[in-house]
Design a protein that fits this description.
It is built from 7 helices and 7 strands. By secondary structure, it is an alpha/beta fold. It has one domain: Vaccinia Virus protein VP39 (Rossmann fold, 3-Layer(aba) Sandwich), CATH 3.40.50. The model has no long low-confidence stretch (mean pLDDT about 90).
Length: about 200
């Protein structure tokens, strides 16, 4: 009997070999990296990194992070990422379980994967514990809320919960874990970002 988590890891492991990032995927990830305000020398924790669309965007924008750590539940996805970006640091881990890297990062990014997360409190707690003072946590998706709902309806997928949680839920969690400067955009893509105060 497998736990739900193992099943998710196995499911993504089985997809890893065929999971490629198209030019459009990379262009959308570039937009997100620009919104994040990441510059060369900054450190980035890429949560649920998959096969590496964010490092592809960084590379094409000519941004060299001081430290880049990719975290994913699927070690097969991380293997593909490492093959394409050998300099990347990777860690197979479940970000819905306690995760501590010390307050080491300027940015924590969760891109295109919020629909796979249900333990949002852990997500915010982990992000807060991984960020430096003044650090930014961003949840972004290449589709808007409405776009994602339409996409899921088209492929016949009926999610058990909202693929992108309500603004009020995200904002409340941000405040609970000490974040400020909340920004929410849901026009061409979805973006929720918040920052820790500068100590």
């Amino acid at each position: 009997m497998h736990s739900h988590k193992e099943t998710a890891a196995e499911q993504f492991d089985s997809l890893a070999a065929d999971w490629s990032n198209s030019g459009l995927d990379i262009a959308l990830a570039q937009k997100v990296v620009r919104m994040l305000g990441l510059e060369s020398g900054n450190s980035l924790l890429d949560v649920a990194s998959g096969t590496g669309v964010v490092p592809a965007a960084l590379k094409s924008l000519g941004i060299l992070p001081g430290r880049y750590l990719a975290v994913d539940i699927s070690s097969a996805m991380l293997a593909v990422l490492r093959r394409n970006y050998p300099e990347a640091e990777t860690k197979a881990a479940d970000f819905e379980e306690p995760f501590d890297e010390g307050h080491a990062f300027d940015f924590v990014l969760l891109y295109n994967s919020i629909p796979h997360f249900t333990r949002l409190d852990m997500l915010f707690a982990n992000a807060a514990s991984c960020l430096k003072s003044g650090g930014t946590f961003m949840i972004a998706h290449s589709r808007t809320r409405q776009g994602l709902r339409e996409h899921q309806a088209r492929i016949g997928y009926r999610p058990a919960h909202d693929p992108i949680p309500a603004d009020s839920i995200l904002a409340e969690l941000a405040v609970r874990y000490g974040f400020q400067q909340i920004i929410i955009q849901d026009e061409e893509l979805f973006r929720f970002s918040c920052s820790l105060p500068v100590l």
